[in-house]
Q: What sequence folds into this?
């Protein structure tokens, strides 16, 4: 049976490094409710990421739902259709009305030039996404938010460790929400976090993620059970020691793809803006079917037939799903629609072996017009 290569594969530490943490959990009998590993990871992540106030969650989706609750967002929220469905689902779970605006075709992030014209008296917040970890135009977005007095909550699920001009991208906006899902740059099996700008907001977030309890007998808000347990936190602590090493491995894989596809008509990769310290989280490849000789979907199916399970991030658009088709702007996002039909994300994880990456490259170039010449260039004819 041929090896199956997927876009992401969870990075796990050697079991012997994790076992001492499990033994301490068993000995203490503290499994959740803000235990010692939870508190230690919260502090360690805040220091590593360059943020002051961080609250851990059981997953990124519950963190998104809670972030909107924490800021008491109501009415309409402007967002992007080019994201994972959890972004917009968090709005519906809060009884909010998504308003979709198109993306910048270069960064795949929400286009600030279109946000202002979508604002109505019912607009209370903007929910942008740092797509593929590429930062949004945070300065332009904040300027609009300040003018109209609305909140900004960033979906930063892809943006672990990303910096803009030396500053953590997580420090922009009112809140930033992270995901530590198994497929992310940093993972705790499942997990997430909310980053906020002041102690009072963190206190409210921490109440909300624990059913609204302020103390043993006082409930101050209709909260949820969003707490990260000790097993997840322990894995996170073990993972922290290897994040830098894994980032370097991702960078090497990314650059090898770029070298292999340089000069191949119809292939281009999403550009990372100047001044950004990126995390090499994805390899989003744009396929121009006329120049390349095959459509993105054809490439997707042909790679799958060879055991390479690439992903069409993000397809379909959120605005194409039944519950969102009637939303304002759902049919007016031409750039997002085009991106959803052109982009394919290739296998990208730190333990991807060079021989396996060569197989992915070979499989893709075999599909190209003039495949013979490109395969010769990489010695794979």
A:
């Amino acid at each position: 049976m041929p090896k199956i290569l997927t876009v992401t594969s969870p990075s796990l530490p050697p079991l012997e490094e994790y076992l001492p943490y499990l033994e301490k959990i068993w000995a203490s009998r503290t499994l959740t409710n803000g235990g010692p590993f939870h508190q230690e990871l919260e502090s360690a992540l805040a220091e590593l990421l360059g943020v002051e106030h961080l609250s851990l969650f059981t997953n990124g989706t519950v963190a998104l739902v809670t972030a909107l609750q924490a800021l008491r967002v109501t009415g309409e929220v402007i967002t992007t259709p080019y994201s994972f469905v959890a972004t917009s689902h968090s709005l519906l779970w809060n009884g909010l009305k998504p308003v979709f605006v198109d993306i910048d075709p270069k960064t795949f992030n929400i286009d600030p030039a279109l946000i202002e014209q979508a604002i109505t008296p019912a607009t209370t917040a903007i929910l942008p996404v740092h797509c593929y970890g590429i930062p949004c135009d945070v300065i332009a977005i904040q300027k609009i938010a300040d003018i109209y007095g609305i909140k900004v909550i960033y979906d930063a699920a892809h943006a672990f460790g990303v910096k803009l001009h030396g500053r953590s991208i997580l420090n922009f906006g009112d809140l930033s929400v992270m995901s530590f899902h198994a497929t992310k740059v940093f993972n705790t099996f499942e997990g997430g976090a909310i980053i906020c700008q002041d102690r009072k907001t963190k206190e409210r977030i921490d109440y909300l993620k624990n059913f609204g309890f302020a103390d043993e007998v006082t409930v101050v808000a209709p909260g949820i059970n969003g707490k990260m347990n000790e097993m997840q936190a322990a894995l996170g602590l073990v993972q922290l020691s290897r994040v830098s090493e894994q980032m370097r491995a991702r960078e090497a894989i990314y650059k090898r793809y770029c070298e292999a596809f340089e000069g191949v008509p119809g292939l281009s990769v999403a550009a990372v803006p100047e001044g950004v310290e990126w995390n090499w989280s994805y390899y989003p490849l744009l396929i121009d079917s006329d120049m390349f000789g095959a459509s993105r979907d054809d490439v997707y199916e042909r790679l799958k037939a060879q055991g390479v399970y690439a992903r069409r991030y993000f397809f379909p658009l959120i605005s194409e799903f039944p519950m969102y088709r009637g939303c304002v702007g759902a049919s007016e996002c031409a750039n997002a629609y085009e991106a959803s039909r052109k982009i394919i994300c290739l296998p990208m994880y730190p333990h991807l072996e060079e021989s396996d990456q060569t197989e992915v490259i070979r499989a893709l170039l075999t599909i190209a017009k003039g495949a013979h010449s490109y395969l010769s260039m990489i010695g794979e004819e």
About this structure: The chain has a mean pLDDT of 95. Residues 243-377 form a domain with the Aspartate Aminotransferase, domain 1 fold (CATH 3.90.1150.10).
